[in-house]
Amino acid sequence: MKYKFCPLCGRELVMRDSWDEGKVPYCPIDDKMYFDLPKPCVVVAVIKGNQILLMKQSYIFKNSKVLVSGYVANGESVENTVIREVKEETGLTVNNLKYLGSDVVSESELLMLTFMADYVEGEINKSKEVEWVDWSNIDDAIYQMEEDEVGKRVVKKVLQNINKDKRL
């Protein structure tokens, strides 16, 4: 979120130097700085053996399959967001969450927190916001995710983790 107006008094903010953070929006009336905030989201690769759960949501990408994703709600932990989003969008239960790192989609101000999770139970029951969802061979997943660069990076990390686990 980019601040343009003061949330307290409604006046237009000015840019002010904030030492090591550079210039940030500032309200001289309330003497308060407002740092721009990214929108935190989760992206999760649900794994079941050698399969990964892929979805189709045309409002995200027209020609690409995607992983489960969603916004972190106020007062919700990122881990609970992962579990909730998988359940809401697919009807499935997951566990063994593993954090894979973060990614940024700067044009959307999104901070993508990426995870992999193990399928536990449930039958696929897609939500209304999902056009299609099904299991795909994990080795073929990247080729089905033409437009989803963040998703492709997540799948690569999942494959590295799976290959590392096989070597142990």
Automatic annotation (TrEMBL):
InterPro entries: NAD-cap_RNA_hydrolase_NudC, NudC-like_C, NUDIX_hydrolase-like_dom_sf, NUDIX_hydrolase_CS, NUDIX_hydrolase_dom. Its EC number is 3.6.1.22. GO terms for cellular component: cytosol. The keyword NAD applies. Residues 37-156 form the Nudix hydrolase domain. It is an enzyme of class 3 (hydrolase). Belongs to the Nudix hydrolase family. NudC subfamily. Its cofactor is Mg(2+); Zn(2+). One of its GO terms (biological process) is NAD+ catabolic process. GO terms for molecular function: metal ion binding; NADH pyrophosphatase activity; RNA NAD-cap (NMN-forming) hydrolase activity. It catalyses: a 5'-end NAD(+)-phospho-ribonucleoside in mRNA + H2O = a 5'-end phospho-adenosine-phospho-ribonucleoside in mRNA + beta-nicotinamide D-ribonucleotide + 2 H(+). This is NAD(+) diphosphatase. Keywords: Hydrolase, Magnesium, Metal-binding, NAD. Coiled coil: none annotated. Gene3D superfamilies: Nucleoside Triphosphate Pyrophosphohydrolase. Pfam families: NUDIX. It comes from Clostridium colicanis DSM 13634.
